[in-house]
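Narrative of accomplishments. A recurring question from our advisory board has been how the design workflow behaves on a single, concrete structure rather than in aggregate. To address it, we present the structure tokens for one chain from the evaluation set, followed by the sequence designed for it. No filtering or post-editing was applied between the two.
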């Protein structure tokens, strides 16, 4: 299990959260701008320090007596802007992650490079990559560090529709194949439903609700659902989602996403 309790202030922002989720699968962190999504990830990574307690798989990373430094937590972090090392090639960026784990180029390196479609890009510099390619390299670098926990902060938000479509299938494959637990920040309900096992709904620095995404509407039906929304209206479509097994929260958020009402944000 991953158990966390953080309560304190960072500048003018107050975070007050308690969570307990399985150390497996994808936990989506969802909420409007300023709700504390990125702050929560930074606390999990140890990049921000707020009073509290954190244990991952039974190992305490933070409590009243101890605080494990970020580089000793075994956390992979994928930012929205990729944050590649511009002076290194794609191979160099990927190997940076591998060296962090005390490993070299091996079968796992080759496997992940192939899985992410990076075979033909290894000798390129980051400046010669598209946005989607840069994000795939960032994801590969994080995974090659052999993380115990993977944190992804809106990795698709900075991409246009074509680049999002390019990267999203890789995330779905990694979700199925990798055993590492993932915290995934997004403001896109379709993305949440496609990738997530559960969702932490955040408001004003607190977790307002934890939602099981198993019964979320199928994101592959988006075109049909948009037409249905226009036909019957938001309230009726939300009611249909609930009747099909979705929680009221997921139903409401799905309707908001279809109507363009979801709010992006990085806090």
């Amino acid at each position: 299990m991953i158990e966390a309790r953080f309560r304190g202030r960072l500048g003018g922002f107050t975070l007050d959260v308690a969570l307990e989720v399985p150390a497996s699968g994808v936990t989506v962190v969802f909420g409007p701008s300023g709700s504390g999504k990125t702050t929560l990830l930074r606390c999990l990574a140890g990049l921000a320090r707020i009073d509290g307690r954190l244990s991952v798989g039974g190992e305490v990373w933070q409590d009243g007596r101890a605080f494990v430094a970020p580089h000793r937590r075994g956390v992979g972090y994928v930012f929205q802007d990729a944050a590649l090392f511009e002076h290194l090639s794609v191979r160099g960026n990927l190997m940076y992650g591998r060296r962090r784990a005390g490993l070299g180029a091996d079968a796992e390196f080759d496997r992940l490079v192939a899985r992410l479609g990076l075979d033909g890009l290894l000798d390129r510099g980051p400046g010669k990559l598209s946005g989607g390619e840069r994000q795939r390299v960032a994801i590969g670098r994080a995974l090659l560090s052999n993380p115990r926990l993977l944190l992804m902060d809106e990795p698709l938000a900075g991409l246009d529709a074509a680049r999002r479509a390019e990267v999203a299938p890789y995330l779905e494959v990694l979700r199925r194949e990798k055993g590492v637990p993932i915290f995934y920040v997004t403001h896109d309900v379709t993305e949440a439903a496609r990738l997530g096992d559960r969702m932490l709904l955040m408001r004003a620095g607190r977790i307002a609700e934890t939602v099981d995404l198993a019964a979320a509407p199928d994101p592959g039906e988006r075109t049909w659902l948009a037409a249905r929304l226009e036909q019957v209206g938001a309230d009726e479509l939300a009611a249909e989602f609930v009747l099909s097994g979705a929680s009221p929260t997921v139903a409401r958020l799905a309707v908001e996403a279809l109507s363009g009402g979801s709010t992006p944000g990085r806090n």
